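User: We ran a pulldown and think these components assemble together. Before we commit to crystallization trials, I'd like a predicted model of the whole complex to look at. Sequences follow.
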Amino acid sequence: KQEVTQIPAALSVPEGENLVLNCSFTDSAIYNLQWFRQDPGKGLTSLLLIQSSQREQTSGRLNASLDKSSGRSTLYIAASQPGDSATYLCATRGFQKLVFGTGTRLLVSP
Amino acid sequence: GAVVSQHPSWVICKSGTSVKIECRSLDFQATTMFWYRQFPKQSLMLMATSNEGSKATYEQGVEKDKFLINHASLTLSTLTVTSAHPEDSSFYICSADPRTGANYNEQFFGPGTRLTVL
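Assistant: Here's a predicted model for the assembly, 228 residues in total across the polymer chains.
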């Protein structure tokens, strides 16, 4: 059974810092891995999707990497802004199903 | 493109009543839809997988007689919480797989439905 863990559970940084969110998973037999953002009381916003054959994906200030063999993915956020404050979730896709991580609550202060 | 809607966005009901939540793929056909539940400050947990024209597959621990799922068309799945109780209060989110059903597909998520049972 796939287990997905995210570290740290919470993170508070001043505006402008570069930061890294970590996601680890126990079963490397995945089709893809996806990073989401969730604002309080809201649904999910997809940020990046990395197929199993890819090593990284980039979108604006976000860069996600995937190392299937070690069961790890990282989300790098450059030059963080207060608007980046949210909960970040990673999810691995096995056969049909997504398994979500425990989430990292990010607070970026002005 | 790839928009998924949910209705209603929030609902408050009395204990013992049934509540129906709709999930629609607006601009694509979805062979498979998924229903998740999220309790406060927790992550999303898959409740069931809904395949068009067949019975849903429920995850371990999810009562199929309490959470009725119907996927009658390629663009609509419904979740009915029967005889709702306060412990069913949660945020329910659906997602949809495009018709090709390939495992490398991206799933597209609805905005969620907040259920509060009094």
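Chain B touches chain A at residues 32, 34, 36, 43-46, 49, 91, 93, 95, 97, 103-104, 106-112, 114 (CB under 8 Å). That may be worth checking against your pulldown data before setting up trials.

User: Thanks, that helps.
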